[in-house]
Protein 1
Amino acid sequence: MIIVSGKIYVIPGERDTFMEGSMESIKAARRTKGCRAFVVGPDVVEPDRVNIYEEWDSKEDLSNFRGSGPSSDISSLIKDANVSEHYIKDTSPDS
Protein backbone atom coordinates (compact mmCIF):
# COMPACT_ATOMS: atom_id res chain seq x y z
CA MET A 1 0.00 0.00 0.00
CA ILE A 2 1.10 3.57 -0.66
CA ILE A 3 0.04 6.62 1.32
CA VAL A 4 0.49 10.02 -0.28
CA SER A 5 0.28 12.87 2.22
CA GLY A 6 1.31 16.43 2.56
CA LYS A 7 0.44 20.05 2.19
CA ILE A 8 0.08 22.47 -0.67
CA TYR A 9 0.19 26.24 -0.33
CA VAL A 10 -1.75 28.15 -2.95
CA ILE A 11 -1.54 31.77 -4.01
CA PRO A 12 -3.19 33.86 -1.26
CA GLY A 13 -6.92 34.12 -1.81
CA GLU A 14 -7.04 31.29 -4.38
CA ARG A 15 -7.79 28.29 -2.15
CA ASP A 16 -11.49 28.13 -3.08
CA THR A 17 -10.57 28.21 -6.77
CA PHE A 18 -8.02 25.45 -6.19
CA MET A 19 -10.58 23.34 -4.32
CA GLU A 20 -13.21 23.79 -7.04
CA GLY A 21 -10.66 22.90 -9.71
CA SER A 22 -9.68 19.75 -7.79
CA MET A 23 -13.19 18.32 -7.59
CA GLU A 24 -13.13 16.36 -10.86
CA SER A 25 -9.73 14.85 -10.01
CA ILE A 26 -11.00 13.79 -6.59
CA LYS A 27 -14.05 12.10 -8.10
CA ALA A 28 -11.96 10.44 -10.82
CA ALA A 29 -9.42 9.14 -8.31
CA ARG A 30 -12.10 7.59 -6.14
CA ARG A 31 -13.41 5.69 -9.17
CA THR A 32 -9.94 4.46 -10.13
CA LYS A 33 -8.81 0.89 -9.55
CA GLY A 34 -6.61 0.66 -6.47
CA CYS A 35 -7.71 3.92 -4.85
CA ARG A 36 -8.62 3.36 -1.20
CA ALA A 37 -8.90 7.04 -0.22
CA PHE A 38 -8.38 10.40 -1.90
CA VAL A 39 -8.84 13.61 0.06
CA VAL A 40 -7.97 17.19 -0.82
CA GLY A 41 -9.12 19.44 1.99
CA PRO A 42 -8.75 23.03 3.12
CA ASP A 43 -6.69 23.46 6.27
CA VAL A 44 -8.70 24.81 9.22
CA VAL A 45 -5.87 27.03 10.54
CA GLU A 46 -3.89 28.31 7.54
CA PRO A 47 -6.10 30.07 4.92
CA ASP A 48 -3.85 29.29 1.92
CA ARG A 49 -3.02 25.68 2.80
CA VAL A 50 -4.61 22.53 1.36
CA ASN A 51 -3.99 19.10 2.93
CA ILE A 52 -3.58 16.00 0.78
CA TYR A 53 -4.20 12.39 1.81
CA GLU A 54 -4.37 9.40 -0.53
CA GLU A 55 -4.19 5.61 -0.13
CA TRP A 56 -3.39 3.32 -3.08
CA ASP A 57 -3.09 -0.45 -3.37
CA SER A 58 0.09 -0.24 -5.45
CA LYS A 59 2.60 2.04 -7.16
CA GLU A 60 1.20 0.85 -10.49
CA ASP A 61 -2.33 1.97 -9.54
CA LEU A 62 -1.02 5.36 -8.39
CA SER A 63 1.07 5.81 -11.56
CA ASN A 64 -1.85 4.87 -13.81
CA PHE A 65 -3.99 7.56 -12.18
CA ARG A 66 -1.34 10.27 -12.11
CA GLY A 67 -0.66 10.28 -15.82
CA SER A 68 0.53 13.77 -16.66
CA GLY A 69 -0.36 15.30 -13.28
CA PRO A 70 -2.68 18.18 -12.42
CA SER A 71 -3.97 20.55 -15.07
CA SER A 72 -2.01 23.71 -15.74
CA ASP A 73 -4.93 25.76 -14.39
CA ILE A 74 -4.60 24.10 -10.99
CA SER A 75 -0.79 23.99 -11.08
CA SER A 76 -0.62 27.72 -11.69
CA LEU A 77 -2.32 28.31 -8.32
CA ILE A 78 0.33 26.38 -6.34
CA LYS A 79 2.89 28.52 -4.54
CA ASP A 80 4.65 25.72 -2.62
CA ALA A 81 4.13 22.03 -1.90
CA ASN A 82 5.50 19.34 0.38
CA VAL A 83 3.90 16.01 -0.53
CA SER A 84 5.47 12.58 0.11
CA GLU A 85 4.81 8.95 -0.78
CA HIS A 86 4.99 6.43 2.06
CA TYR A 87 5.33 2.74 1.23
CA ILE A 88 3.56 0.47 3.74
CA LYS A 89 4.60 -3.18 3.90
CA ASP A 90 2.11 -4.40 6.52
CA THR A 91 -1.29 -3.01 7.34
CA SER A 92 -2.29 -5.55 9.98
CA PRO A 93 -3.09 -4.34 13.50
CA ASP A 94 -0.57 -4.83 16.30
CA SER A 95 -0.86 -8.15 18.11
Protein 2
Amino acid sequence: MTHPIPQTMGQQFGRRSWAEPWKIKMVEPLRMISRKERQRALEAAGYNTFLLRSDDVYIDLLTDSGTGAMSDRQWAGMMLGDEAYAGSRNFYHLEEAVRTQYGFRHVVPTHQGRGAEHLISQTAIKPGQFVPGNMYFTTTRLHQELAGGVFVDVIIDEAHDPASLHPFKGNVDLARLEDLISRVGAEQIAYISLAGTVNMAGGQPVSMANIRALRQLCDRHGLRIFLDATRLVENAFFIQEREQGYADKSIAAILREFCDLADGAWMSAKKDNLVNIGGWLAVNDDALFDELRNLVVVYEGLHTYGGLAGRDMEALAIGIEESVQDDHIRARIGQVRYLGELLTDWEIPIVQPVGGHAIFLDARRFYPHIPQDEFPAQTLAAELYLDSGIRSMERGIASAGRDPKTGDHHRPKLELTRLTIPRRVYTQAHMDVVAESVKAVFDGREQTRGLRMVYEPKYLRFFQARFERL
Protein backbone atom coordinates (compact mmCIF):
# COMPACT_ATOMS: atom_id res chain seq x y z
CA MET A 1 0.00 0.00 0.00
CA THR A 2 1.25 3.47 -0.82
CA HIS A 3 0.49 6.92 0.49
CA PRO A 4 -0.68 9.82 -1.74
CA ILE A 5 2.08 11.86 -3.31
CA PRO A 6 2.40 15.29 -1.65
CA GLN A 7 1.40 18.01 -4.08
CA THR A 8 3.36 20.87 -2.50
CA MET A 9 6.15 21.39 -0.05
CA GLY A 10 3.70 23.46 1.99
CA GLN A 11 1.49 20.44 2.44
CA GLN A 12 4.41 18.28 3.44
CA PHE A 13 5.81 20.65 6.05
CA GLY A 14 2.61 22.38 7.09
CA ARG A 15 2.19 26.13 6.76
CA ARG A 16 5.66 26.99 8.04
CA SER A 17 8.47 27.59 5.58
CA TRP A 18 11.41 25.19 5.53
CA ALA A 19 15.10 25.93 5.09
CA GLU A 20 18.23 24.05 4.13
CA PRO A 21 19.98 22.34 7.08
CA TRP A 22 23.24 24.22 6.46
CA LYS A 23 24.60 27.75 6.20
CA ILE A 24 26.97 29.16 3.59
CA LYS A 25 30.59 29.63 4.66
CA MET A 26 32.29 30.25 1.30
CA VAL A 27 30.96 31.57 -2.02
CA GLU A 28 32.01 31.09 -5.64
CA PRO A 29 31.16 34.08 -7.86
CA LEU A 30 28.88 33.51 -10.86
CA ARG A 31 28.96 35.49 -14.09
CA MET A 32 26.35 35.90 -16.81
CA ILE A 33 27.81 36.55 -20.26
CA SER A 34 25.76 38.42 -22.89
CA ARG A 35 23.29 36.69 -25.21
CA LYS A 36 25.60 37.43 -28.16
CA GLU A 37 28.47 35.73 -26.32
CA ARG A 38 26.22 32.79 -25.43
CA GLN A 39 25.29 32.37 -29.08
CA ARG A 40 28.96 32.24 -30.06
CA ALA A 41 29.71 29.78 -27.26
CA LEU A 42 26.80 27.55 -28.26
CA GLU A 43 27.86 27.46 -31.91
CA ALA A 44 31.47 26.71 -30.92
CA ALA A 45 30.16 23.82 -28.78
CA GLY A 46 28.16 22.37 -31.66
CA TYR A 47 24.91 22.96 -29.72
CA ASN A 48 26.06 20.32 -27.22
CA THR A 49 25.93 21.60 -23.64
CA PHE A 50 28.63 19.09 -22.61
CA LEU A 51 31.07 20.99 -24.83
CA LEU A 52 30.45 24.40 -23.27
CA ARG A 53 33.14 25.88 -21.05
CA SER A 54 31.96 26.20 -17.45
CA ASP A 55 33.17 29.83 -17.43
CA ASP A 56 30.44 30.55 -19.99
CA VAL A 57 27.69 29.00 -17.83
CA TYR A 58 25.59 30.96 -15.32
CA ILE A 59 23.63 28.25 -13.47
CA ASP A 60 25.00 24.79 -14.11
CA LEU A 61 22.33 22.07 -14.05
CA LEU A 62 24.14 19.73 -16.43
CA THR A 63 24.54 17.01 -13.80
CA ASP A 64 24.59 16.26 -10.10
CA SER A 65 27.66 14.05 -10.62
CA GLY A 66 30.54 15.46 -8.58
CA THR A 67 29.07 18.97 -8.66
CA GLY A 68 27.81 19.11 -5.06
CA ALA A 69 29.33 21.06 -2.17
CA MET A 70 31.27 19.16 0.49
CA SER A 71 30.80 19.93 4.17
CA ASP A 72 33.31 21.41 6.60
CA ARG A 73 33.78 17.91 8.07
CA GLN A 74 34.59 16.52 4.65
CA TRP A 75 37.10 19.27 3.90
CA ALA A 76 38.68 18.69 7.31
CA GLY A 77 38.85 14.98 6.49
CA MET A 78 40.74 15.78 3.31
CA MET A 79 43.63 16.95 5.50
CA LEU A 80 43.78 13.53 7.12
CA GLY A 81 44.59 11.68 3.91
CA ASP A 82 46.89 8.72 4.37
CA GLU A 83 48.51 8.59 0.96
CA ALA A 84 50.08 5.17 1.40
CA TYR A 85 49.97 3.09 -1.76
CA ALA A 86 48.76 0.02 0.16
CA GLY A 87 46.60 -0.28 3.26
CA SER A 88 45.66 3.39 3.66
CA ARG A 89 43.75 3.98 6.88
CA ASN A 90 41.21 5.97 4.85
CA PHE A 91 40.27 2.82 2.93
CA TYR A 92 39.30 1.12 6.17
CA HIS A 93 37.19 4.13 7.16
CA LEU A 94 35.45 3.88 3.77
CA GLU A 95 35.00 0.13 4.08
CA GLU A 96 33.39 0.52 7.50
CA ALA A 97 31.06 3.30 6.28
CA VAL A 98 29.82 1.18 3.35
CA ARG A 99 29.36 -1.88 5.58
CA THR A 100 27.45 0.13 8.18
CA GLN A 101 25.10 2.07 5.90
CA TYR A 102 24.72 -0.30 2.92
CA GLY A 103 25.37 -3.62 4.63
CA PHE A 104 27.57 -5.38 2.07
CA ARG A 105 30.56 -7.38 3.32
CA HIS A 106 33.27 -6.69 0.73
CA VAL A 107 34.16 -3.24 -0.65
CA VAL A 108 36.25 -2.31 -3.70
CA PRO A 109 36.94 1.42 -4.25
CA THR A 110 36.94 2.78 -7.82
CA HIS A 111 37.75 6.14 -9.37
CA GLN A 112 34.04 6.72 -10.09
CA GLY A 113 30.84 4.83 -10.85
CA ARG A 114 31.65 3.68 -14.36
CA GLY A 115 34.80 2.01 -13.08
CA ALA A 116 32.57 -0.09 -10.83
CA GLU A 117 30.16 -0.77 -13.71
CA HIS A 118 33.05 -2.03 -15.79
CA LEU A 119 34.29 -4.39 -13.09
CA ILE A 120 30.91 -5.98 -12.31
CA SER A 121 30.15 -6.35 -16.03
CA GLN A 122 33.45 -8.07 -16.77
CA THR A 123 33.17 -10.48 -13.87
CA ALA A 124 29.44 -11.28 -13.78
CA ILE A 125 28.42 -11.39 -17.48
CA LYS A 126 29.21 -14.17 -19.93
CA PRO A 127 28.97 -13.33 -23.66
CA GLY A 128 25.42 -13.80 -24.90
CA GLN A 129 23.78 -13.55 -21.48
CA PHE A 130 20.84 -11.23 -20.86
CA VAL A 131 20.85 -8.46 -18.25
CA PRO A 132 17.30 -7.46 -17.29
CA GLY A 133 17.02 -4.00 -15.75
CA ASN A 134 14.53 -1.32 -14.78
CA MET A 135 15.31 0.95 -17.77
CA TYR A 136 18.76 1.45 -19.26
CA PHE A 137 21.35 3.95 -18.15
CA THR A 138 23.90 5.06 -20.73
CA THR A 139 27.21 3.96 -19.22
CA THR A 140 25.71 0.93 -17.49
CA ARG A 141 24.25 -0.52 -20.67
CA LEU A 142 27.44 0.16 -22.62
CA HIS A 143 29.60 -1.71 -20.12
CA GLN A 144 27.13 -4.59 -20.17
CA GLU A 145 27.21 -4.68 -23.97
CA LEU A 146 31.01 -4.46 -24.11
CA ALA A 147 31.10 -7.52 -21.83
CA GLY A 148 28.91 -9.38 -24.34
CA GLY A 149 25.62 -8.93 -22.48
CA VAL A 150 22.23 -8.02 -23.91
CA PHE A 151 20.24 -5.47 -21.89
CA VAL A 152 16.48 -6.10 -21.59
CA ASP A 153 14.15 -3.43 -20.18
CA VAL A 154 11.75 -4.95 -17.61
CA ILE A 155 10.49 -1.74 -16.01
CA ILE A 156 6.73 -1.23 -15.60
CA ASP A 157 4.92 0.50 -18.47
CA GLU A 158 4.07 3.56 -16.36
CA ALA A 159 7.76 4.51 -16.36
CA HIS A 160 7.53 5.37 -20.06
CA ASP A 161 4.56 7.71 -19.51
CA PRO A 162 5.72 11.13 -18.26
CA ALA A 163 2.17 12.04 -17.15
CA SER A 164 1.59 8.93 -15.04
CA LEU A 165 1.37 9.61 -11.30
CA HIS A 166 2.33 6.08 -10.28
CA PRO A 167 4.28 6.55 -7.00
CA PHE A 168 6.92 3.92 -7.86
CA LYS A 169 7.55 4.14 -11.59
CA GLY A 170 10.95 2.50 -11.15
CA ASN A 171 9.41 -0.87 -10.24
CA VAL A 172 10.30 -4.03 -12.14
CA ASP A 173 7.47 -5.68 -14.09
CA LEU A 174 7.75 -9.10 -12.47
CA ALA A 175 5.57 -10.80 -15.08
CA ARG A 176 7.77 -9.46 -17.87
CA LEU A 177 10.88 -10.68 -16.09
CA GLU A 178 9.33 -14.09 -15.46
CA ASP A 179 8.47 -14.33 -19.15
CA LEU A 180 12.08 -13.54 -20.13
CA ILE A 181 13.39 -16.22 -17.78
CA SER A 182 10.96 -18.81 -19.17
CA ARG A 183 11.98 -17.95 -22.77
CA VAL A 184 15.77 -17.92 -22.41
CA GLY A 185 16.37 -19.97 -19.25
CA ALA A 186 17.70 -18.81 -15.90
CA GLU A 187 21.24 -19.83 -16.85
CA GLN A 188 21.17 -17.20 -19.60
CA ILE A 189 20.42 -14.40 -17.13
CA ALA A 190 23.62 -12.80 -15.84
CA TYR A 191 21.96 -10.88 -13.00
CA ILE A 192 19.18 -8.37 -12.40
CA SER A 193 20.38 -4.77 -12.77
CA LEU A 194 18.20 -2.70 -10.43
CA ALA A 195 18.57 1.08 -10.23
CA GLY A 196 17.01 3.15 -7.52
CA THR A 197 16.02 5.81 -8.38
CA VAL A 198 15.70 5.40 -12.17
CA ASN A 199 17.51 8.29 -13.82
CA MET A 200 16.21 7.93 -17.37
CA ALA A 201 12.60 7.66 -16.16
CA GLY A 202 12.85 11.00 -14.37
CA GLY A 203 14.41 10.01 -11.05
CA GLN A 204 11.58 7.60 -10.23
CA PRO A 205 11.82 5.24 -7.22
CA VAL A 206 11.46 1.50 -6.60
CA SER A 207 9.21 0.35 -3.77
CA MET A 208 10.33 -1.93 -0.96
CA ALA A 209 7.47 -4.27 -1.83
CA ASN A 210 8.76 -4.55 -5.39
CA ILE A 211 12.34 -5.45 -4.49
CA ARG A 212 11.05 -7.89 -1.86
CA ALA A 213 8.94 -9.65 -4.50
CA LEU A 214 11.88 -9.49 -6.93
CA ARG A 215 14.10 -11.14 -4.33
CA GLN A 216 11.62 -14.01 -3.97
CA LEU A 217 11.45 -14.45 -7.75
CA CYS A 218 15.25 -14.45 -8.06
CA ASP A 219 15.63 -16.93 -5.21
CA ARG A 220 13.31 -19.34 -7.05
CA HIS A 221 15.50 -19.15 -10.16
CA GLY A 222 18.90 -18.82 -8.51
CA LEU A 223 19.52 -15.28 -9.80
CA ARG A 224 21.46 -12.41 -8.25
CA ILE A 225 20.38 -8.79 -7.84
CA PHE A 226 22.96 -6.03 -8.17
CA LEU A 227 21.95 -2.47 -7.38
CA ASP A 228 22.91 0.76 -9.03
CA ALA A 229 23.00 2.52 -5.66
CA THR A 230 23.94 5.91 -7.08
CA ARG A 231 20.80 7.62 -5.79
CA LEU A 232 19.50 4.93 -3.46
CA VAL A 233 19.34 7.34 -0.50
CA GLU A 234 16.87 9.43 -2.51
CA ASN A 235 14.94 6.23 -3.22
CA ALA A 236 14.75 5.59 0.54
CA PHE A 237 13.15 9.01 1.01
CA PHE A 238 10.31 8.15 -1.38
CA ILE A 239 9.73 4.83 0.40
CA GLN A 240 9.57 6.69 3.72
CA GLU A 241 7.07 9.14 2.27
CA ARG A 242 4.88 6.88 0.13
CA GLU A 243 4.98 3.29 1.34
CA GLN A 244 2.89 2.03 4.24
CA GLY A 245 4.87 1.09 7.33
CA TYR A 246 7.90 3.30 6.61
CA ALA A 247 6.85 6.77 7.72
CA ASP A 248 8.41 6.32 11.16
CA LYS A 249 11.60 4.62 9.95
CA SER A 250 14.79 6.57 9.37
CA ILE A 251 16.35 6.98 5.94
CA ALA A 252 19.36 4.97 7.16
CA ALA A 253 17.16 2.07 8.28
CA ILE A 254 15.22 2.02 5.00
CA LEU A 255 18.42 2.12 2.96
CA ARG A 256 19.85 -0.82 4.88
CA GLU A 257 16.65 -2.85 4.54
CA PHE A 258 16.63 -2.28 0.77
CA CYS A 259 20.26 -3.32 0.37
CA ASP A 260 19.77 -6.43 2.49
CA LEU A 261 17.53 -7.73 -0.31
CA ALA A 262 20.35 -7.51 -2.90
CA ASP A 263 23.61 -9.34 -3.53
CA GLY A 264 25.76 -6.30 -4.19
CA ALA A 265 25.84 -2.76 -5.50
CA TRP A 266 27.91 -0.32 -7.50
CA MET A 267 28.04 3.34 -6.64
CA SER A 268 28.91 6.60 -8.31
CA ALA A 269 29.78 8.35 -5.06
CA LYS A 270 29.66 11.71 -6.86
CA LYS A 271 25.89 11.75 -6.33
CA ASP A 272 24.30 10.54 -3.06
CA ASN A 273 27.63 10.20 -1.24
CA LEU A 274 28.42 13.91 -1.57
CA VAL A 275 31.93 13.91 -3.02
CA ASN A 276 33.46 15.39 -6.17
CA ILE A 277 35.13 12.16 -7.27
CA GLY A 278 34.94 8.50 -6.35
CA GLY A 279 32.95 5.30 -6.47
CA TRP A 280 32.80 1.84 -4.99
CA LEU A 281 31.61 -1.69 -5.65
CA ALA A 282 30.38 -3.89 -2.82
CA VAL A 283 29.33 -7.56 -2.81
CA ASN A 284 28.62 -10.35 -0.34
CA ASP A 285 29.97 -13.31 -2.34
CA ASP A 286 33.55 -14.27 -1.41
CA ALA A 287 34.47 -15.76 -4.80
CA LEU A 288 33.10 -12.79 -6.75
CA PHE A 289 34.93 -10.39 -4.46
CA ASP A 290 38.16 -12.26 -5.12
CA GLU A 291 37.70 -11.71 -8.87
CA LEU A 292 36.80 -8.06 -8.43
CA ARG A 293 39.73 -7.39 -6.09
CA ASN A 294 42.05 -8.91 -8.67
CA LEU A 295 40.57 -7.07 -11.65
CA VAL A 296 40.55 -3.65 -9.97
CA VAL A 297 44.36 -3.85 -9.82
CA VAL A 298 44.43 -4.14 -13.61
CA TYR A 299 42.14 -1.22 -14.42
CA GLU A 300 41.90 1.13 -11.43
CA GLY A 301 44.63 0.72 -8.82
CA LEU A 302 45.41 -1.42 -5.80
CA HIS A 303 42.36 -2.91 -4.06
CA THR A 304 42.81 -0.53 -1.11
CA TYR A 305 42.66 2.67 -3.17
CA GLY A 306 41.08 1.82 -6.53
CA GLY A 307 42.15 5.00 -8.30
CA LEU A 308 41.44 7.35 -5.36
CA ALA A 309 43.76 9.33 -3.14
CA GLY A 310 43.53 8.66 0.60
CA ARG A 311 42.00 12.11 1.13
CA ASP A 312 39.26 11.28 -1.39
CA MET A 313 38.37 8.10 0.47
CA GLU A 314 38.19 9.99 3.77
CA ALA A 315 35.84 12.62 2.32
CA LEU A 316 33.76 9.79 0.86
CA ALA A 317 33.51 7.93 4.18
CA ILE A 318 32.25 11.11 5.86
CA GLY A 319 29.92 11.88 2.94
CA ILE A 320 28.26 8.47 3.27
CA GLU A 321 27.42 9.24 6.91
CA GLU A 322 26.07 12.69 6.07
CA SER A 323 24.02 11.47 3.11
CA VAL A 324 21.69 9.30 5.21
CA GLN A 325 20.67 12.11 7.57
CA ASP A 326 16.94 12.69 7.27
CA ASP A 327 17.08 16.48 7.31
CA HIS A 328 19.67 16.49 4.52
CA ILE A 329 17.70 14.35 2.09
CA ARG A 330 14.41 16.09 2.91
CA ALA A 331 15.91 19.47 2.00
CA ARG A 332 17.70 18.04 -1.06
CA ILE A 333 14.52 16.67 -2.62
CA GLY A 334 12.56 19.65 -1.34
CA GLN A 335 14.59 22.00 -3.55
CA VAL A 336 13.91 19.82 -6.60
CA ARG A 337 10.20 19.85 -5.79
CA TYR A 338 10.19 23.60 -5.36
CA LEU A 339 11.33 24.02 -8.96
CA GLY A 340 8.89 21.36 -10.14
CA GLU A 341 5.96 23.10 -8.48
CA LEU A 342 6.79 26.42 -10.14
CA LEU A 343 6.82 24.77 -13.58
CA THR A 344 3.68 22.76 -12.88
CA ASP A 345 1.83 25.91 -11.82
CA TRP A 346 2.71 27.40 -15.22
CA GLU A 347 1.48 24.23 -16.98
CA ILE A 348 4.91 23.47 -18.42
CA PRO A 349 5.16 19.77 -19.35
CA ILE A 350 7.48 17.86 -17.01
CA VAL A 351 7.78 14.26 -15.87
CA GLN A 352 5.38 13.60 -13.01
CA PRO A 353 5.67 12.91 -10.16
CA VAL A 354 8.79 15.00 -9.55
CA GLY A 355 11.75 12.69 -8.94
CA GLY A 356 14.69 12.87 -6.61
CA HIS A 357 17.55 14.64 -8.36
CA ALA A 358 16.20 16.63 -11.28
CA ILE A 359 13.30 18.13 -13.16
CA PHE A 360 12.82 16.43 -16.53
CA LEU A 361 11.19 18.63 -19.15
CA ASP A 362 9.05 16.66 -21.61
CA ALA A 363 10.53 17.79 -24.91
CA ARG A 364 7.93 15.85 -26.95
CA ARG A 365 5.14 17.97 -25.49
CA PHE A 366 7.35 21.06 -25.40
CA TYR A 367 8.06 20.83 -29.15
CA PRO A 368 5.34 18.65 -30.73
CA HIS A 369 6.29 20.04 -34.16
CA ILE A 370 9.91 18.77 -33.96
CA PRO A 371 10.34 15.08 -34.97
CA GLN A 372 12.41 12.91 -32.64
CA ASP A 373 15.10 12.47 -35.31
CA GLU A 374 15.63 16.25 -35.13
CA PHE A 375 16.60 16.00 -31.45
CA PRO A 376 13.94 18.02 -29.62
CA ALA A 377 15.47 17.45 -26.17
CA GLN A 378 18.89 18.56 -27.39
CA THR A 379 17.22 21.57 -28.98
CA LEU A 380 15.54 22.48 -25.70
CA ALA A 381 18.85 22.29 -23.80
CA ALA A 382 20.39 24.65 -26.37
CA GLU A 383 17.48 27.10 -26.15
CA LEU A 384 17.67 27.27 -22.35
CA TYR A 385 21.36 28.10 -22.48
CA LEU A 386 20.80 30.72 -25.14
CA ASP A 387 18.02 32.34 -23.10
CA SER A 388 19.74 32.61 -19.74
CA GLY A 389 23.09 30.81 -19.56
CA ILE A 390 21.52 27.82 -17.78
CA ARG A 391 23.16 24.53 -18.69
CA SER A 392 20.95 21.43 -18.80
CA MET A 393 21.34 18.16 -20.68
CA GLU A 394 19.54 15.91 -23.14
CA ARG A 395 18.03 12.58 -22.10
CA GLY A 396 16.37 11.36 -25.29
CA ILE A 397 17.34 9.96 -28.67
CA ALA A 398 20.90 11.33 -28.55
CA SER A 399 21.55 9.72 -25.16
CA ALA A 400 19.90 6.47 -26.25
CA GLY A 401 22.50 5.93 -28.98
CA ARG A 402 22.28 3.27 -31.67
CA ASP A 403 21.37 -0.40 -31.78
CA PRO A 404 24.73 -2.24 -32.02
CA LYS A 405 23.24 -4.79 -34.44
CA THR A 406 21.20 -2.60 -36.83
CA GLY A 407 23.06 0.69 -36.45
CA ASP A 408 19.73 2.55 -36.29
CA HIS A 409 18.86 5.02 -33.55
CA HIS A 410 17.38 3.70 -30.36
CA ARG A 411 14.13 5.69 -30.16
CA PRO A 412 13.07 5.91 -26.50
CA LYS A 413 9.49 6.77 -25.62
CA LEU A 414 10.81 9.46 -23.30
CA GLU A 415 12.41 12.50 -24.92
CA LEU A 416 13.53 14.59 -21.98
CA THR A 417 15.71 17.55 -21.06
CA ARG A 418 17.14 17.25 -17.56
CA LEU A 419 17.56 20.12 -15.12
CA THR A 420 19.80 18.43 -12.56
CA ILE A 421 20.15 20.05 -9.15
CA PRO A 422 23.59 19.76 -7.50
CA ARG A 423 23.52 19.01 -3.78
CA ARG A 424 24.00 21.91 -1.34
CA VAL A 425 25.00 24.38 -4.09
CA TYR A 426 22.15 26.65 -5.22
CA THR A 427 19.45 28.62 -3.40
CA GLN A 428 15.75 28.91 -4.09
CA ALA A 429 16.45 32.23 -5.82
CA HIS A 430 18.47 30.30 -8.40
CA MET A 431 15.51 27.96 -8.86
CA ASP A 432 13.28 30.99 -9.51
CA VAL A 433 15.65 32.16 -12.26
CA VAL A 434 15.63 28.68 -13.80
CA ALA A 435 11.84 28.47 -13.76
CA GLU A 436 11.47 31.87 -15.41
CA SER A 437 13.90 30.90 -18.16
CA VAL A 438 12.03 27.67 -18.87
CA LYS A 439 8.80 29.69 -19.05
CA ALA A 440 10.37 32.14 -21.53
CA VAL A 441 11.58 29.31 -23.78
CA PHE A 442 8.20 27.59 -23.51
CA ASP A 443 6.40 30.78 -24.56
CA GLY A 444 8.56 31.00 -27.71
CA ARG A 445 8.43 27.29 -28.55
CA GLU A 446 6.46 27.54 -31.79
CA GLN A 447 9.26 29.42 -33.55
CA THR A 448 11.93 26.90 -32.54
CA ARG A 449 13.45 24.53 -35.08
CA GLY A 450 15.36 21.31 -34.48
CA LEU A 451 18.93 20.15 -35.01
CA ARG A 452 20.86 17.68 -37.11
CA MET A 453 23.86 15.74 -35.91
CA VAL A 454 27.04 16.54 -37.80
CA TYR A 455 29.55 14.59 -35.70
CA GLU A 456 28.95 11.34 -33.82
CA PRO A 457 31.52 9.41 -31.76
CA LYS A 458 31.31 5.63 -31.57
CA TYR A 459 30.44 5.32 -27.87
CA LEU A 460 28.25 7.44 -25.58
CA ARG A 461 27.71 9.92 -28.36
CA PHE A 462 25.77 12.46 -26.29
CA PHE A 463 28.97 13.51 -24.50
CA GLN A 464 30.82 14.67 -27.63
CA ALA A 465 28.36 14.78 -30.55
CA ARG A 466 28.01 18.04 -32.45
CA PHE A 467 24.90 19.51 -34.02
CA GLU A 468 23.83 22.40 -36.21
CA ARG A 469 20.58 24.26 -36.68
CA LEU A 470 18.18 23.02 -39.34
